[in-house]
Each structure stands twice: as structure tokens, then as C-alpha cells.
Design a protein that fits this description.
alpha+beta
């Protein structure tokens, strides 16, 4: 079962997505529950919600196509992004492959979800969208080894990470500004538990990530082509600062695509899901 959030009468509701029965709100499954989907990252609560979903009557569920998904949650304590982590993508930009993760952080004001609008800021004439496999932390994580790192991951989720590329090209110190316009971080529609996507070898290496614009696959690659694996990134950043449940690591893209008003861009990850957003221009200031 997957974890997500839907909109009901202008209210965001945490839901369990059952593979055969559809979508049920957690408050219907667990009377007295009050909170967002991030609270379900606690193993006991998620397990209780899944058990309740199995036992619930059919009328509790709605079909996926009849609900409106939004971002799974809106207030992670931190979002870590990683630049140039796919070797081929570094080559696209004529950049050297980093010898350490090229990390940056994004604020939660950047978050949108499924079918939300990516707003092109007036300050930029060249914005790119980048499909990524998001890594969602499931429990407190500090100074962990690479070998143990995936034990602290709850699941994975499609991401679209946006960059005002022309601002960044003016000066690499402008990275934070270029990454932090509103709507520059989309994730969803569903968070998939890690065990569901791990390969036979217990890794994510065979997962394919595709950047898609207007129905055309712009670039795709497998996680195995990352310079720094998801496990390495969790370990590395846990040694910089504590990671908390709901923190997200966005570990790089196989390829960025320039987006313009009217485009539809997707992060398509077989076995995980497809995140879709439309692109609009920012309204001029009156």
C-alpha cells in the first residue's frame, strides 16, 4: 500500500492507496487520527492504517481516478537536492563529475503536487525541470553508515526539481536563489514503501527515471548511473546534520529539460509512479 494526500472540499486529507480497492482517508480508517501524511511515516501508524484498510468496507474507498492528488505533505524539515549526480548529465552541462555530492537545500515554500502549476518567474528566461527519484527519510538518522543507510528510508517518490538556469549560469553562488522560487519542487502523487521497489540485491540501481516534456521522453537513465548512490547520500548527509522523518533527498536527474508556458512536464518512474505538472508564466506585477 502507498501513502498520499488528496484534496476534499479544499481540505488536504492523508490517504492510504490500496492496490486493489482504491483510496481511503486515514481519518476514516483510524477514527481520531488528525494530521498529515508525514505523521504516517511512523511504522506503527502506517501498519495500523494498512490493517484497517484491509478490514474496511468497500464504501470507505474511492477510485483513484475520482480523487484529486496533491503533495503528500507540505512541511518537511528539510529538502536536500544533489546536482550533477548522473555522470551523463554532468557531461551534458560540460561539467566535471563532482568528487563529493554537490548539495543544496530548498525551502518548503517551493512545494507543489500532482497537477499543480509550475510558475516561471519573471526574473528568469530559462527554467529547466528535472525528473528525480525522491528518497523519503522514515526515522531519525544521524551518523549512519552507507551499509545501514537504507534502513532509515521509508520510501521513494517521483520529483520534479526546477532551476532558473540562466541565474545559476551567471554565478554558481546563485544556486540557492535559482532553486528556490515558488513551485520549484513538486513531489507525489504517492510515496511507495522502499521494500516494494528494492531489487533482488536490496538496491535501487535498476530503477529507471525519465524526464518527459509534452509526452516526449527527453532523457532517461537508471539509478545505477548515479555517481553517488541513494544509500551513500543518506549516509553522507546524516554526517552533516540530523535527518528526520519526512526529510527528502532529491538525488539528481538523468537530464533537465527547458520548460515554457503551456508545457506539460512529467517525472515518470516505472514501478513508482508518474508526477505531472503544467507550466505557466508568472503574472506581471501591477
Amino acid at each position: 500500500m502507498h501513502l498520499a494526500t488528496i484534496m476534499q472540499k479544499d481540505d488536504a486529507k492523508a490517504v492510504i492507496v490500496h492496490p486493489g480497492r482504491g483510496v481511503a482517508t486515514v481519518e476514516d480508517l483510524l477514527p481520531g487520527f488528525s494530521g498529515d501524511a508525514m505523521m504516517l511515516l511512523e511504522d506503527e501508524r502506517f501498519a495500523a492504517a494498512c490493517a484497517a484498510a484491509e478490514a474496511a468496507p468497500d464504501e470507505v474507498f474511492s477510485a483513484r481516478e475520482n480523487v484529486v492528488f496533491t503533495a503528500p505533505y507540505r512541511s518537511p524539515r528539510k529538502i536536500w537536492g544533489i546536482g550533477l549526480n548522473y555522470r551523463a548529465h554532468a557531461g551534458d552541462l560540460s561539467e566535471n563529475v563532482p568528487t563529493e555530492p554537490a548539495s543544496f537545500m530548498k525551502g518548503d515554500h517551493t512545494i507543489i503536487g500532482q497537477d499543480g502549476q509550475i510558475v516561471l518567474p519573471e526574473q528568469s528566461e530559462r527554467v529547466t525541470a528535472e525528473a528525480e527519484l525522491g528518497i523519503v527519510i522514515g526515522r531519525y538518522c544521524r551518523d549512519v553508515s552507507e551499509e545501514d543507510a537504507l534502513d532509515y528510508v521509508w520510501g521513494v517518490v517521483p520529483i520534479l526539481d526546477q532551476t532558473a538556469e540562466d541565474i545559476l549560469q551567471r554565478n554558481p553562488r546563485f544556486l540557492t536563489r535559482s532553486k528556490n522560487f515558488p513551485s520549484f519542487f513538486s513531489f507525489g502523487p504517492e510515496i511507495v514503501p522502499l521494500d516494494e521497489v528494492l531489487g533482488d540485491d536490496g538496491s535501487l540501481e535498476d530503477v529507471v527515471v525519465k524526464t518527459v516534456r509534452n509526452g516526449e521522453v527527453w532523457r532517461e537513465n537508471t539509478v545505477s548511473q548515479m555517481t553517488f548512490s541513494p544509500a551513500f547520500l543518506v549516509s553522507f548527509h546524516s554526517k552533516v546534520m540530523p535527518l528526520y522523518p519526512g526529510d527528502i533527498i532529491s538525488p539528481g536527474t538523468p537530464g533537465a529539460v527547458v520548460i515554457r508556458a503551456g508545457d506539460v512536464v512529467e517525472s515518470s518512474i516505472p514501478g513508482v509512479g508518474t508526477l505531472r505538472n503544467t507550466v505557466i508564466a508568472q503574472n506581471p506585477v501591477a
